[in-house]
């Protein structure tokens, strides 16, 4: 009898149109403090830096907290929809004798199989990079990135980004100091569960005559097929580069095609890369146009060939204040991507989104409704994740009269909804300093966001989930669905 009643209620809801859609703001749950992180965070602050979801309700977050000794790295998992307790990254404190460590990036290939990278201080003011893996739900011990210390004779290195194509098959990029105050970029791969040795990004040192290079972002479409973007200094200014790994072999770094011609002001960088399949990637970032300020760009790789960088369409017309940037890109399939970032107009800094559909970039638009909550004039889209073409989510921040707040916005079937304040985060954020740092969508209607808030005494980390279950509309399927 209970099942019959359930069918009737569901059917009536469908007829009345009362079933929530994937775009409904109610599908975002309430932000919560990362469980147990407040207990670890006895110092002045903590935050979630990066989130990755392998499947609906199975995610991981990394970041940092401050103990009485100093900054430490943490990880926390969501399993079957429930967030567990944050824990100190195992064995990182043994490496981190200088008490300044952080998990900067996490990537999960499947539920319970993730990797984290970041940095630590070895006690002599020397910063080194680390990696740590979770295997079948258990976090192993953090280890120094193999061979990175050999490159890092200047004692300033960091793993900035990690991407895992499958369990035990990952790549990390970042930077190191070669001992002469010259910063260079590196890559390192994990293959079959074993981390290889870090290497200087091939040919990047030759480009980097101004001695300031970094790998900022990595994306792996399949094991051994990855791409990295970042920046280097050619002696005239900062420029952007890309480099691909194909069939486990890293090729030579190249300047992002046509970006130097846009970058007349000499300040450019590839900030984010996303690969939908091997040889099909997209990069976003920024460049400086002499006399006009900073602008955002996009560039695509198609079937293994990088095209020319172009200004993000229509962003220049929005960016009347001359300070724009593409901060994050996500590609759900080849030629179907989304970018978010920021620009400046007469009212201040605003957030934008732009989509590529079937290989063609549309026009950048202001994030819908963000300006209405961004009353103090400082907002940005920090991170975007697309579960399928036209189904994406963005997080970031805006400012109002009390202070800084976090927002989320969803795109559903190609249409962007309205930005909303992250539910319940304002209640946690009594110190008026919150931000959504990272978003990951495992499937359409199943996403997670992490970031930070200020509870009036210190910064704390939060997580929030978007969970939308839309029942089928065919009555016969409904009967089957409900038993």
Please name the defining characteristics of this protein.
single chain, 10 helices, five-stranded antiparallel sheet, mainly beta, 11% helix, 483 residues, disordered N terminus
Topology:
Elements: H1 2-16, E1 32-33, H2 37-40, E2 46-55, E3 58-66, E4 71-79, E5 82-83, E6 87-88, H3 92-95, E7 102-110, E8 113-121, E9 127-135, E10 138-139, E11 143-144, H4 148-151, E12 158-166, E13 169-177, E14 183-191, E15 194-195, E16 199-200, H5 204-207, E17 214-222, E18 225-233, E19 238-246, E20 249-250, E21 254-255, H6 259-262, E22 269-277, E23 280-289, E24 293-302, E25 305-306, E26 310-311, H7 315-318, E27 325-333, E28 336-345, E29 348-357, E30 360-361, E31 365-366, H8 370-373, E32 380-388, E33 391-399, E34 404-412, E35 415-416, E36 420-421, H9 425-428, E37 435-443, E38 446-454, E39 459-467, H10 475-482
Antiparallel strand pairs: 1-39, 2-3, 3-4, 4-5, 4-6, 7-8, 8-9, 9-10, 9-11, 12-13, 13-14, 14-15, 14-16, 17-18, 18-19, 19-20, 19-21, 22-23, 23-24, 24-25, 24-26, 27-28, 28-29, 29-30, 29-31, 32-33, 33-34, 34-35, 34-36, 37-38, 38-39
Helix pairs in contact: 1-10
């Amino acid at each position: 009898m209970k099942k019959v009643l359930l069918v009737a209620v569901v059917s009536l809801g469908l007829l009345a149109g009362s079933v929530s859609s994937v775009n409904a703001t109610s599908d975002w749950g309430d932000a919560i403090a990362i469980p147990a992180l407040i207990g670890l965070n006895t110092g002045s602050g903590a935050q979630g830096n990066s989130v990755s979801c392998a499947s609906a309700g199975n995610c991981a977050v990394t970041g940092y907290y401050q103990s009485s000794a100093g900054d430490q790295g943490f990880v926390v998992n969501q399993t079957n929809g429930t967030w567990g307790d944050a824990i100190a990254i195992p064995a990182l404190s043994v490496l981190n004798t200088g008490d300044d460590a952080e998990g900067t990036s996490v990537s999960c290939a499947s539920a319970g199989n993730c990797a984290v990278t970041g940095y630590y201080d070895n006690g002599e003011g020397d910063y080194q990079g680390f990696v740590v893996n979770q295997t079948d739900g258990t976090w192993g011990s953090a280890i120094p990135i193999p061979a990175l210390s050999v490159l890092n004779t200047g004692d300033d290195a960091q793993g900035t980004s990690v991407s895992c194509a499958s369990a035990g098959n990952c790549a990390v990029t970042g930077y190191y100091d070669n001992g002469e105050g010259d910063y260079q970029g590196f890559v390192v791969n994990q293959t079959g569960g074993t981390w290889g040795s870090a290497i200087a990004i091939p040919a990047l040192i030759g480009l980097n005559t101004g001695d300031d290079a970094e790998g900022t972002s990595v994306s792996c479409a399949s094991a051994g097929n990855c791409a990295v973007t970042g920046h280097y200094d050619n002696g005239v200014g900062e420029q952007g580069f890309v480099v691909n790994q194909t069939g486990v072999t890293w090729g030579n770094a190249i300047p992002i095609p046509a970006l130097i011609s846009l970058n007349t002001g000499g300040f450019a960088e590839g900030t984010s890369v996303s690969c939908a399949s091997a040889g099909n990637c997209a990069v976003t970032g920024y460049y400086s146009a002499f006399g006009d300020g900073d602008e955002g760009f996009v560039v695509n790789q198609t079937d293994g060939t990088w095209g020319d960088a172009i200004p993000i369409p229509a962003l220049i017309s929005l960016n009347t204040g001359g300070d724009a940037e593409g901060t994050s890109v996500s590609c759900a399939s080849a030629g179907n991507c989304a970018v978010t970032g920021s620009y400046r107009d007469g009212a201040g800094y605003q957030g934008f989104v732009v989509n590529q559909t079937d290989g063609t970039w549309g026009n950048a638009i202001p994030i819908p409704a963000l300006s209405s909550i961004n009353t103090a004039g400082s907002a940005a889209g920090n991170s975007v994740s697309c579960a399928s073409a036209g189904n994406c989510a963005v997080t970031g921040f805006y400012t109002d009269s009390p202070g800084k707040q976090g927002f989320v916005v969803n795109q559903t079937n190609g249409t962007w909804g309205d930005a909303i304040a992250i539910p319940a985060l304002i209640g946690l954020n009594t110190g008026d300093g919150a931000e959504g740092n990272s978003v990951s969508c495992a499937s359409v209607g199943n996403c997670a966001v992490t970031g930070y808030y200020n509870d009036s005494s210190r910064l704390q980390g939060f997580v929030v989930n978007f969970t939308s279950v839309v029942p089928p509309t065919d009555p016969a399927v409904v009967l089957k669905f409900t038993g």
